Structure formats: structure tokens, C-alpha cells
Amino acid sequence: MNKYDVVVIGGGPAGYVAAIRCAQLGLKTACVESWQTPAGKGALGGTCLNVGCIPSKALLDSSHHFSFLGKQAAEHGIQVDNATIDVKKMMARKDKIVKALTGGVASLFKKHNIDWLQGHGHLSGEKQVHITPNDGSDKQTVEADQIIIATGSVPAGIGQAEVDNSGPIVDSTGALALAEVPAKLGVIGAGVIGLELGSVWKRLGAEVVVLEAQDSFLPGVDAQIAAEAHKSLKKQGLDIRLGAQVSATKKNRNGVRVSYQDSDGEQTLDVDKLIVAVGRRPNTDSLGAEAIGLKLDQSGFIQVDDHCRTNVSGIWAIGDVVRGPMLAHKAMDEGVAVAERIAGQTAHMDYDTIPWVIYTWPEIAWVGRTEEALKQDGIDYKSGTFPFMASGRARGMGDTEGLVKVLADAGNDTILGVHIFGPSASELIAEAVTAMSFDASSEDIARTIHAHPTLSEALHEAALAVDQRTLHL
């Protein structure tokens, strides 16, 4: 039986980063990963690199370019007549990007002498992992002083719309591999995944209807930002129907008929394809948790303490299988922190400064508290906003929708939250995260010189606005 200092179960962002950091710290490390490509080859990177973050952003980028040619290029003096999209070629580009990045992780494993054990791993003892190889060869068991569980998450489903991914009802994985642009596309769920995938296919020419069971749009987002985003997405042509509870679906020769209930009663919607995007759930079903007494909560999440320790000595859990947001960057940082704790170092995770991003266009990004949360908790605050319409760089780009919002403590001016709806919000939010990590005040950002002309000046001006002294509005 092979013996390791650390065995990581799962090769997604949490797992592969944890394995790399463990190896960097001199620990003999193995990573168990069962992912296989459609061609039957093993791949690292988990959902994020294979059928999540990376391929979705590749398609978002391709669809954004196509939409620009048809709707904005003429304003720049660029004349493009009858632009068409080759979906097969677009998908091939996406697949090439995925292959390069997953191959890159495999190369990093070789560089750091990490053993990649290809197959499904489950716990067979407090210090043992049982592996069923992908290639059908004999099962094996490895032993480790420490085990890190990083098995990620899988798409959640609903009984009213059974996913098959080979027919008209697909989940996020199937939505990233459609062979053609559907004439009419239905999406169940107006969350991050539903809005991003709906945006891709809307830009490429599909009529898109999004059915959201909740009465409010993006309830976790600052209400002012969510309202601006809702208005923009509707203007782009996304038909977002709130308070629409799906009751049944029926496949037919033309696609799917969706039955749903809203404030006007029972409704039906006929679509060519239907994406079920109702969130994700922890991937712990076949982990073997019960056999060793590993505690899970009612939703299937592994219970951990503030340092990601489970109730079983020597076993840790990170990423989507534990509490907190299901975000790749949160998972990666937990992987680093746990590796360092195993090596005897002191590690820190600041869960209050984890950034969130929704990759629509304009993008939505935020960190910290929303205005509604501050009001609910009775925290006295100040607010400053600045619209991209007043940004010289945004005007030059032709992307003037949206705003930056800074929330600061009314007493000591500490930044409590930053919310952005606008171009490149995913990049701009990093400055806010850095500032909040150092307990900066809005005055600190206001006194920081920002290059001109840049989009980052909008954050600078929003910080100035907290003290009612914007310069360009």
C-alpha cells in the first residue's frame, strides 16, 4: 500500500491548488481525480476548468464579440454586413482553451512530483482512500497521514424538469455544448449560471425566456445594483419572468413545453431547448462519509470548523463541499490555507472579503455588505455612487451603463462594501478587495491617485462621493 503525507480527493480548483501547495511545502502528495473528457481521457481541473468557469467565459467572450459586430461596431465606424456565427468553430475554440488549461494543471503536478491517481476515490478508513481506477484496472487503497476532501459540487436538479443533456433539457454542462443556436431557449433560474448562459445564447440570436421562482431579481445583490442590471438585461432582450414557479415539463417532437405558475395563474411556454440552472449541490453522495462517521449537514455539506477541519481527525474539507459561497477563488484559498495548516504554519482566510462576480455584460461584482444588510443590522453608514456615463474611458469604449457604489461606516469611514455594475467590474473589484483587506477607509481610496483615463477612476469618484465631493459629476 502506497503511503503519502497528504492525499487530496478531487482535482478541481480547491483540490489541485491544495495539492500543489502541499508539495511546495515538502509533503509527499497524491491527488485522486476521476474526471474524464468526452473522448475518455482523464483531466484535472474539475467542473471549473472542464465544464464551468473557463468554458463559460470562453463562450461569453465569443458571443460578446459577435454581438458587438451586429450592434455596436457601426458606432465605431466599423461596417460588418451579415455577420454569422460558426457554432462548431466557437465550440472548438472553447475546447482548445479547456485542453490547454487542464493540461497545464497536469504539467504542474509533474513539476511538483504530485501523483495523480486517476479514478474515483472514497474513504475506506480514517487514514485510507480506496480508489476505483478509470481504466478498469484493479482497485487500490492508499494511506495518508492527512486527507483533504475537495470533491466539489454538481448541478442541482428539480423533479419537474429531468435533465438528460442528450435531448432538449440540459443543465449547465449541456448548455456549454449545444450544436446550434436554438430558435427559442428557456432557462429555469435567474441566478449566476442562468443569466450567464442565457446571455451567451441570446447574443448569438436565440430568443431567451428566463423563469425565476423568486419574486425579486438577484436578491443577494445590492438592490440598487440588481435593479440596474435587471433593466439592462431586459433591454438586451432577455425575457426575465419573476415569480414563475415551474410545475411540469413535457418533451415533444419540437422541444419542450414548460408549465409554470405565476401571479396570473397557470402558464405554458414552448421552447426548443431548456436549461435547468437552479444552483449546485455538494458532491458528497459517493464519498463514503457514513462509513467513517464523517458528519454532513442536511444539505449534504461536510461540517467543518473555522479551519476546515472535519470531526474526523486528520481529515479536512474545502471548497464547494463545505459552508460558504461556491466560488473557485474561495476554494483555492481554502486549499492553500489547509495545506499550510497541515505543514504547521499559521494560515488566514478572510471570508468577509471574498469577491463575487456575475459575468453578464455589463458585469456585476461586489464585495462586503449590501446596503439592505446594513440597514437590517442597524449599522450607520455613508454611501457614494458614480455612474460610468461620467467616465471618459467608458465613453471612449462605448460602455457607459452602470455605476460604482461605495458603502462606508458613518463613524470611522471603514469601507463596508463595494458594488459595481459596469464594464470590467470583475477586474475593478480587486482594488476594493485589497482595500477592505487592509481595513481601508473610503478616504484612503479617495486619496489614491488613479491613472487617467481608466475605468478605475469610477471607483475613485465613488469613494469621493461618500464625502460628497465628486469631481466629475
Automatic annotation (TrEMBL):
Residues in FAD/NAD(P)-binding domain copies: 4-335
InterPro entries per the UniProt record, alphabetical: Class-I_Pyr_Nuc-Dis_Oxidored, FAD/NAD-bd_sf, FAD/NAD-binding_dom, FAD/NAD-linked_Rdtase_dimer_sf, Lipoamide_DH, Pyr_nuc-diS_OxRdtase, Pyr_nucl-diS_OxRdtase_dimer, Pyr_OxRdtase_I_AS
Record's subcellular location: Cytoplasm
Catalytic residue list: 452
One GO location term (cellular component): cytoplasm
Catalytic activity: N(6)-[(R)-dihydrolipoyl]-L-lysyl-[protein] + NAD(+) = N(6)-[(R)-lipoyl]-L-lysyl-[protein] + NADH + H(+)
Residue ranges occupied by any Pyridine nucleotide-disulphide oxidoreductase dimerisation domain in the UniProt entry: 354-463
Record GO biological process: 2-oxoglutarate metabolic process
Protein residues bound to FAD: 57, 121, 151-153, 320, 326-329
UniProt cross-references to Gene3D superfamilies, sorted A to Z: 3.30.390.30, FAD/NAD(P)-binding domain
GO molecular function: dihydrolipoyl dehydrogenase (NADH) activity; flavin adenine dinucleotide binding
Annotated keywords: Cytoplasm, Disulfide bond, FAD, Flavoprotein, NAD, Nucleotide-binding, Oxidoreductase, Redox-active center
Lineage top rank: taxon: Bacteria
Cofactor names: FAD
One Pfam assignment: Pyr_redox_2
Disulfide bonds: 48-53
EC numbers for this chain: 1.8.1.4
Primary location class: cytoplasm
Residues bound to NAD(+): 189-196, 212, 279
Cofactor comment text: Binds 1 FAD per subunit.
Family to which the UniProt record says this protein belongs: Belongs to the class-I pyridine nucleotide-disulfide oxidoreductase family.
Misc. comment: The active site is a redox-active disulfide bond.
Name of protein: Dihydrolipoyl dehydrogenase
Taxonomic lineage: Bacteria, Pseudomonadati, Pseudomonadota, Gammaproteobacteria, Methylohalomonadales
